[in-house]
Amino acid sequence: MAFSSVICFLDDNNILRSCESSSDGMPGIWSEYTGKLITDFLDIDVTLASGYARWQGKVLKFVQSKNRMGKGTILFIAACSDHSAIYEQAMDNIAEGIQVFDRNGYLLFCNKGNERIEKMDRAKIIGKHLLDIYELDADFSTILTALKTKAPVINRCDNFKNKYGEMITTMNSGYPLFMDDQLIGAIGLVQDNSTLETYWTRANVFEKYLSKREQGGNHEKRKNFYTLKYYTFNDLIGANTSFAEAVHLARNIALQDCAVLIYGETGTGKELFAQSIHSASKRKYKEFVAINCAAIPESLIEGILFGTEKGTFTGSSDRMGLFEQAEGGTLFLDEINSMALHVQSKLLRVLQEKKFRRVGGLKDIECDVRILSSTNEEPLACIENSRLRRDLYYRINTVTVNIPPLRQRLDDIELLTHYFIKQLSCRYSKKVTTVADQVIETFKAYTWPGNVRELLHVLEYAFNIMEGQRIDLHCLPKYFAVQQSPKTVTGTPAACKPILHHRTLEELMAEYEQKVVIQVLQDYNYNVSKTAQALGIKRQSLQYRLKKYNVRPTE
């Protein structure tokens, strides 16, 4: 129904007394509102001299002035230019879900993509309040947060039930909408796994096109047509003195473009440091490429690093390696001490001469790449054990950043715990308000062989089994109930002192892990699924450890 201009006469209490319109039908339509408060039927802020109002799904422009002929005010209302049918049809062709809410949280529109993702007929939900459509906590609603804060809420993962009781998992973004600096509503963008897979497929097609274009003879430097979000130094959480010194050193050398060796145990955050250095460097607008040298078979790592030429071996093709992908950017070699020694020698040549050849290739390719490396063992010990070439060590070790393990950062335990709880509260849509003092004390008494990563997994386990809003001792994995060794004043297990000279730390950690796995396995009568759940790891990870320690469950 078209909307014509309307002039409303209001008394001092904003009660509609009469109205006039350029359309013969409009006064009749509005006559039913005579004698009613204007805000009872019109979404309008009467404290403003002008702005936007909403009536029956239409956005209206209004101007308000004093009635010089009598008491009260005169309200002039006109329809905005309305191309909504065209816009709605256009949005129905977009794969991701689109929702439009008014400033009070009532749904005005959603597209077909939203119907598909949330499995709800839009005809049955348009006009309803968000909390009447979804079963969720208002504090974790992307749209309500955007309306309340008047700021965007980006990429929030939500778990919620639709009106039919089905559990839906989506990634949502909410953006407030303004007209003349006046908040009029919010738009929500909804993505599910299928939507993300579609974008991933498109990105792969585009990537292949770019590679094919380069191989066809276009030697222009590859441009970045998309930007990845990397960690920055603001994401490195901790107030411990040793940790703060490591962060300070990393900040200072980020702009220097020198080679950096990052030393830290598994789970201390070596890649977070590497990404933060890249994000603060001159190369931040280029690629950051990472490879875990321990996860790549020795027979493949050379081809992965340097690329291959077609015909080199059966099934080989012209394929760029990581050095070419990271051109102009940063290459992070994680656990470089796990790389085969003959590959280390070839890597040394590349670092010295700034050029390399693909496997089977005859042409040298120049490269401009900053090398960041990491080891999870003490570098000099790796050299003594012939796991790291001495000459390569001096090439990649212009600056060494030592990340302290979590057991040496006990003063950061509580800070990290609350930081992770805040993150997990958004991810799991749970409002966790407190953590028991006994939990913090238990955390500080634990040795954390898995470091910060293990702390995150322990808290994630708690979120999966807890029912209230507080994390208590019973929410922790069962292995925390295993009796720990007595500690010295410095926090080092006293029992370890006499045996450290005979075994490495890695061997001691493996022995401790084996004892914990066997103890929890016995507690659950050798049930693999329940044991894995209690330990907070995947069933496949537990199977790997059982095979590693030659433990045969009866299940």
Automatic annotation (TrEMBL):
- Natural source organism: Sporomusa acidovorans (strain ATCC 49682 / DSM 3132 / Mol)
Residues annotated as domain Sigma-54 factor interaction: 236-464
Protein known as = Arginine utilization regulatory protein RocR
Q: Which residues form the PAS domain?
A: 83-136
Record's superkingdom? Bacteria
- Work out whether the entry's keyword set contains DNA-binding: yes
Per UniProt, the keywords (alphabetical) are: ATP-binding, DNA-binding, Nucleotide-binding, Transcription, Transcription regulation
Is Transcription set as a keyword in this record? yes
InterPro entries in the record: AAA+_ATPase (IPR003593), AAA_lid_NorR (IPR058031), Homeodomain-like_sf (IPR009057), HTH_Fis (IPR002197), P-loop_NTPase (IPR027417), PAS (IPR000014), PAS-like_dom_sf (IPR035965), Sigma_54_int (IPR002078)
A Pfam short name: Sigma54_activat
